[in-house]
Amino acid sequence: SDSSLTATRRRSPRPERLLPDRYAQAVAQAGLSPVARPSFDVKEGAEGKGLRLIATVEVRPLVTLPDYRAIRVAPDTHPVTDADVDRVLEDLRARQGHLVSAASEPARRGDYVLLKVGEAPAGIARLQPGKEVLVEIGGGLLPAEIEAALEGVRTGEDREVQPAGSEGTVRLHVLDVRRKELPALDDAFARAVSHESTLAVLRDRLRERLTGERAESEARDLRERALEAVLAQVSIDLPESMVLHELEHMVEELTGRLRSRGLSLETYLRSQEKDEATLRADLRPGAERRVRVRLVLDEVARREGLTLSEEEMARAVENLAQESREDVQKMQGWLAQGDRLAGLREYLLRQKAMATLVASVTGGS
User: Fold this and answer.
1) What is the pLDDT of residues 94-128, one digit of tens each?
2) What pTM, to 2 d.p., does this model score?
3) SS (H, E, C) the chain
4) Where are the domains of the chain?
5) pLDDT for 236-266, tens place per residue?
6) CATH 3.40.50.970 describes domain 98-181
């Protein structure tokens, strides 16, 4: 919503010098929380005396929270099992395996077939006439009809297949059938794939890692479900300026990720057959949700009277420095620029608010 603030000046012919101080005073007196820069209108005062400065500004919306302590969201936990550890070990074995010829045996799912492509219609990129290609049966890199036709083939045999939706025929000659040979699951294997001395110790380490990863995943899931339960009962008239600011931030995030992969935003948009307006329309729901979540967490922090101690801020700065492999003093200097320190404080308070919310809806407080 918009609010108009009025300040009167009696003498100076240069009102722009007044704007920052008078505006800040008027905002404080009105008890408002602006979310964007104001627009100013300068008018003559009553009877031509002095000047009247009118500032129109978008303010933080009122957020009315439900009784979140009455909301219940059950944690969804799944302990790590022996089967989970076995799956990771099998993945490690598969990576250590090597292909050996099984020329005298029929190919089965999971085997690799070395093919000479005699003929293939355009559109199947991996099959180029005259070329050799190694294909895993069941790997999903070729049309299902072709992979199905390769099951049971032997070295030296030919296959003809007409894939669904294709007008041409695929003609293939089998040069070799190869099977992945896996290493034995023993202490030597454990030493080859890790720093652990025995298979038993490796299993313990894998279980610890999986337990930590699963705990993090379940905590993220619980936070999301807790937020959704509260957001479902909150209606907020989002200020357009906040949504547009977040939308701009999301475009910048995407641009940065693309740049790290050596791509430009323009190249990405061409590959997706989109323009920037369509991209922003696609991103807008996410931007709106981010703003809504922040407003809710800020209100939780206000309602709960959450604060940050100097020790908590110092610890956060140390953690940031450690993660960035920077000196703590350098990190402090970087944070002192602009509104970075205020941004860190806001982030940490929202983290506290999120923890409070999760504890409330799970009956932890």
Assistant:
1) 999 999 999 889 999 999 999 999 998 887 878 88
2) 0.69
3) CEEEEEEEECCCCCHHHCHHHHHHHHHHHHCCCECCCCEEEEEECHHHCCEEEEEEEEECCCCCCCCHHHCCCCCCCCCCCHHHHHHHHHHHHHHHCEEEECCCCCCCCCCEEEEEEEECCCCCCCCCCCCEEEEECCCCCCCHHHHHHHCCCCCCCEEEECCCCCCCCEEEEEEEEEEEECCCCCHHHHHHHCCCCCHHHHHHHHHHHHHHHHHHHHHHHHHHHHHHHHHCCCCCCCCHHHHHHHHHHHHHHHHHHHHHCCCCHHHHHHHCCCCHHHHHHHHHHHHHHHHHHHHHHHHHHHHHCCCCCHHHHHHHHHHHHHHHCCCHHHHHHHHCCCCHHHHHHHHHHHHHHHHHHHHHHCCCC
4) 2-58, 61-96+185-235, 98-181, 237-304, 306-365
5) 989 898 999 999 999 999 999 999 999 999 9
6) no
